[in-house]
Each structure stands twice: as structure tokens, then as C-alpha cells.
Amino acid sequence: MSTSQSPICPKFVSVEGADIHSRSKPDGFRFSLVSYNILAQAYVKSSFFPHSPSPCLKWKSRSKAMLTVLKNLEADFLCLQELDEYDSFYKQNIETRGCSSIYIQRSGQKRDGCGIFYNNNCADLILEDRIEYNDLVNLVEDESCVSGDKPADTCITGSEVKNDEPKNGTSSKTSREDRGDPNDPLVRLKRDCVGIMAAFKLKDSYHSIVIVANTHLYWDPEWADVKLAQAKYLLSRLSKFKSLVSEKFECTPSVVVAGDFNSTPGDKVYQYLVSGNASLGSTECLEEVPVPLCSVHDHTRGGEPPFTNCTPGFTDTIDYIFFSPDDRIKPDDVEAGSGRRHTSSRVVTASARRQREEQLRFMADAQRAHAAEEERVGGQDVAGDVEMEGDDSIPPPSSDTIPVPRDEGSRRTIFFYRRIVFW
User: Fold this and answer.
1) Helix axes 135-147, 224-249, angle to 10 degrees
2) Most distant CA atoms of the chain, gap in Å
3) Alpha-carbon gap, residue 324 to 244, rounded angstroms
């Protein structure tokens, strides 16, 4: 008789070469940062994850497995996207390990959001701010009012824009949204996406200050203009926040930006984010960026990883950790992780090509197991504990975090995270 086993925790595997010498630098203060889209339980449904057996999708199993994985990452900063059940589960369980956290829930009726957990022994929170990309709607209305081109029945003044909460909306907005015209920018830009950023004072001898931002941009590849607008708004807000921190604490803070950007290397969003990097001579600068950024992986490895998202419907790189180059912060060790659980309870690590082949094979095994279970229950849709509501902002077939398995036998799947160590 088979018995259920605890999930194998991923093993960090350095993707650096032997030419990186700063790991042994004695005068640097090292801290680690992980970016992880953990897949909100609100978006779990077996029809969206046919490659994952239904027991893996249940909240009771997923929550315990995910908590084990997150704790064993032992990150100083943990940037999570699609974070739901924050107050009821994650906050209390992770903070028992000597961490504190900040969180922003998505606008509207969405259940998930972005959170940053930080090690109290590593850093103190000194300032925070939240980003709601629905504010772009107000900016469009404000600009239209200034130009005299009214997009709505009523022109909103600057003071009204400041006090108006996008999630509540106005009657004119509501009527437009009811029509749902995607060509209307006031409808198109309201995607309920969010981000969060905070300034931390590191507990090093210099009391260095670092800004950590975490975000999740809109998913639809057909709406690249929306994602680009969100990316520009992110850097605009980040620049203002950096200036505020500089003035208030009389410092020049370092900047790290992590998240699920739903954008592949080379597309307009990615190009914009890194266009302020002078070392990328071949990059076409779309416009001057308020905060120059470098991709950690590209900076240390000369390119992005083959993928951070691996599902039957979509495999590519869409998650990144960026940093603003300066003399105070440098990536020391960048690591990518994947884990699997099966009967022998071991973690497999391999080259990117071999890893991808194994992962796809594992998913095929899980898909066959799921098909067998569906046949056993009469072809019914065996959904997770929480049904997914209608939500056009999450791509069902290509979430970048696959549920962590907790069942026995050959049912197995994979998950991804990004980890970086700075000094």
C-alpha cells in the first residue's frame, strides 16, 4: 500500500560560471531575493491544468506543499505574485519564521495580489508604496481633460482624479465598462493589476538602503500596449519613490525589481525595461527611462534562461529580476530552480536543455495519470477546492507556476522560481 510523502523541496543550483569571484568577497553584505508566481488558488481548476492530477490542485494539499517550499527557500526577500489567502494562511505561517510582510490585493473583485516577505534579521522596512495600474485610467482622463478631448460624458478634474479610487469607479466609467469596448482606453487599461514597492534598511555595517519592487503585469499577448503602459507607469512610480526615499533618508538607494512581467525577452516591454542600460548598445531605446535597469540573469549569464514558464500550452521566459546598476549592489549568484517529486524522492538537476526535456516528460506522465483519474470518476471535471470565477486577466492554459504535487506514484509535476544573491 502506497503512502503519501512530503514534497521534495527544490535544491538551489547555481547557473553561474567559475569566473564569478565575488562570492568570497569579505566586505560585502549578502542577501538573497526570490521571485515566485505561486498560482493563486482562486485560479486553480483541473480543466486549466489537465497535466496536473486533481489531488495536486486541492487547497489542503497545495497550501501545505507550497508553505514547505517557501520556507525552505530561506530567502531574505520573497516576492510573490498571485498571492491569495494572504491574511488567512500565508501571512501567519511564514511570519512565524522571523519574517514580516507587506501585501497589496488586486483591484476590483480579484482575490490575489503581490506580496513581499522579508527577513527581520536582514532588513527593516522604512517606507512602502503601492501601485494600482488602474490609475492609468485616471491619467488618460486627466490628459483628455487638459487637451479638451473628453473621452467621457463628464470631464474629471485633477482633484477628482486624485481622490477617485479606480476600483470603485464613476458612473461614466461603469457605463463604459458595461459596454466593454476594448478600443476604449478607459476600458482597455483597467486590468486590475497591481504592484508593491518598499524601502528597506539593511542590517549591515553601512545601514545600506535598498528598494524592492514586486509586480505582476497583464497577461494577454494581444494586449501588448497595455503591458507597455503598465511597465512605463511602474518605472515612473518607482522613480518618484526612489526620489522620496533619497530625500527623506538622505541616501542613494539601490533598486531591485522582481515579478511576473508576462513578456518574453526582446518584446517591447522587456526592451523598454532594459533600454536604460548603456551596456546594451544594440538595444533600441524606445524612450528615456526614469530608472535604468538590468536583468540579473542577462547581466551575469549573457542572456535570459530558456524558460521560466513551462506548461503544455506555453514555454518561455516571462519572469525576471532586474536591478539598477550602481557601485553599491551587484548580483553575486543567480540561481534558477525546479523541483519534482516522485517515488524515489530525489531532486533532479540538469542542463537547461535536459531539464526542459525531463520536465515535459514529467508533465506527459501527469497528464496520463489525470486522464486515468477522469475516466475513473466518469469524465467529470475534478476541480480544486476553489472554483475560478470569470477573470480575463489570468491566462488559464499558461500560468507560470504549476501546482506542487503531494500524491504518490508516478504523478509528478514541476514548479519554477527565480533566486538571486546580492552583495
Assistant:
1) 90
2) 74
3) 17
pLDDT at 186: 87
Average pLDDT per consecutive 10 residues, the chain (423 residues; last block may be shorter): 54 42 54 94 88 88 92 93 97 95 94 97 97 94 62 33 31 43 90 97 90 97 95 98 97 96 96 79 64 92 90 90 88 55 23 45 52 51 36 39 29 40 62
- Using CA atoms, how far apart are residues 156 and 150, in angstroms rounded to an integer? 9
- Count of beta carbons in the 10 Å neighbourhood of residue 53: 29
3-state secondary structure (DSSP) of residue 398? helix
DSSP state of 405: P
CB 35 within 8 A of CB 79: yes
Residues 322/294, Cβ–Cβ less than 8 Å: yes
With beta carbons less than 8 A apart as the criterion, state whether 180 and 187 touch. Answer: yes
Q: How far apart are CA 207 and CA 3, in angstroms?
A: 49
- Contact criterion met (CB below 8 Å) for 193 and 133: yes
pLDDT value of position 52: 83
Whether residue 234 contacts residue 278, with contact meaning beta carbons closer than 8 Å, is answered with no
DSSP-assigned letter for residue 227: H
- Enter the C-alpha cell of residue 340: 519534482
Question: What are the respective helix, strand and coil percentages of the chain, to the nearest 5?
Answer: 30, 20, 45
Contact 9, 414 (CB under 8 A): no
